[in-house]
Amino acid sequence: MRDHSISEKIEICWGKRRIVAELRRTDRRVLRIDVGPTGEVAILAPVGEEIDEIRSRAHRKSAWIFAQIDTIAQRPKLTPTRRFISGETHLLLGRQYRLAIEQSNDPHVRIEGGRMVISARSTDDQPHCRRLLHAYYALRAREVFRQRLEIVAEPFIRKGLKRPPMIIRRMSKRWGSFTPGGRVVLNVDLVRASFRLIDYVICHELAHAFYPDHGEEWSKLLRTVMPDWEERKGELEAKLR
Q1: Superkingdom of the source (predicted)?
Q2: Which residues are paired to 119 by β-bridges?
């Protein structure tokens, strides 16, 4: 999906409240509004759609947008910035591990019981430790995400969806997306979540293969496949903020 706009903003009001959302022009056919895990709002609009129509549709969704923002504000505070030093806790597949950094001429990451061990050339080289852990996460993500896609895609395939290819990459504001070309894109950082939360994100995006927006038909389909999807959504955004 290509972004056709350098920087556009649009104001959304509800009563006396207001927020400025980022407006991005894309190749998608239907306008979509996303509220990110930290409360930022993004509007993905088709190229050529009139700005007045975009404002009108955003206004019609304003109550929902501010309800999402309020829900996020009530959740625990963001995880502190990771320093990649021994003693920190890091998540992998929903489990918390205590980080241990050791010196080694064979840089790698391994799991030992409740410890996540980073073997690095220098225990004081935090950027190097960060790169090692990110590479390890990427490796596990490729393995796990593809397994989960095979499992959860079946109900959508029975409805006529062709088995979609998957792209895994680092994303700053979203857990996933479904491209106009029929690909599932997942944020590599999602590998920190449990299987049930990974499954939710994949199903969320596969439902967009049938309904591009977050309307009633999309919700109905997702609820049919995953009745507790709203609970999982809240858990994901609370645990991985």
Answers
A1: Bacteria
A2: 102, 108
